[in-house]
């Protein structure tokens, strides 16, 4: 039988609190309540993605500004670092308007979800990491999703307008709504969750 590792349980508790911050839109907080209800039940089919990608090497520089932070943002950064060896990495290779080199300059870390540390199909909890000056392609997907930012970063939600929610704040993408993100001169790091 699968037993959840304490480091993962710790990260989940911290992420659950981050997704209830008042700085998030109400729809993001409401989605997160449902996601974390499901995550309470550990589940793993053992099909973790084993490949690492070049952008994984940006993890330390992306998290460095938060490692000494006494808030939950710092706790989240330290918890993610503790999970690094068990994260399931993946990349997007389709979509429009991405910067020329976006494939090499981004990576997603799946923690709970398909191919992740806890590989499962009912929820997704993980993060996106973009190298500086990277524009991730426009895309959409049926599950709605919520983000919490651990860095600076800009987001687009189909209306031509880019905005930076701010560290510790976030956004909500309704089902099938087009969206994208881009980094400035520092790496973009954002935790997301989806209800599948
Ligand atoms: Fe998305």
Automatic annotation (TrEMBL):
It holds the Pfam family DMSP_lyase. InterPro entries: DMSP_lyase, RmlC-like_jellyroll, RmlC_Cupin_sf. This is Transcriptional regulator.
């Amino acid at each position: 039988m699968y037993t959840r590792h304490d480091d993962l349980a710790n990260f989940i508790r911290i992420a659950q609190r981050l997704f209830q911050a008042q700085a998030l839109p109400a729809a993001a907080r409401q989605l997160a309540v449902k996601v974390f209800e499901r995550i309470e039940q550990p589940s793993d089919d053992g099909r973790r993605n084993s490949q690492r990608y070049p952008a994984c090497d940006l993890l330390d520089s992306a998290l460095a500004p938060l490692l000494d932070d006494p808030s939950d943002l710092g706790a989240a950064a330290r918890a993610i670092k503790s999970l690094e060896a068990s994260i399931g990495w993946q990349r997007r290779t389709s979509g429009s308007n991405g910067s020329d080199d976006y494939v090499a300059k981004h990576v997603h870390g799946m923690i709970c979800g398909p191919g992740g540390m806890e590989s499962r199909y009912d929820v997704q909890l993980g993060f996106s990491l973009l190298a500086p000056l990277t524009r991730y392609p426009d895309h959409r997907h049926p599950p709605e999703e919520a983000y919490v930012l651990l860095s600076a970063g800009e987001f687009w939600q189909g209306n031509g307008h880019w905005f930076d929610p701010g560290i510790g704040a976030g956004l909500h993408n309704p089902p099938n709504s087009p969206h994208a993100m881009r980094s400035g001169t520092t790496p973009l790091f954002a935790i997301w969750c989806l209800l599948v």
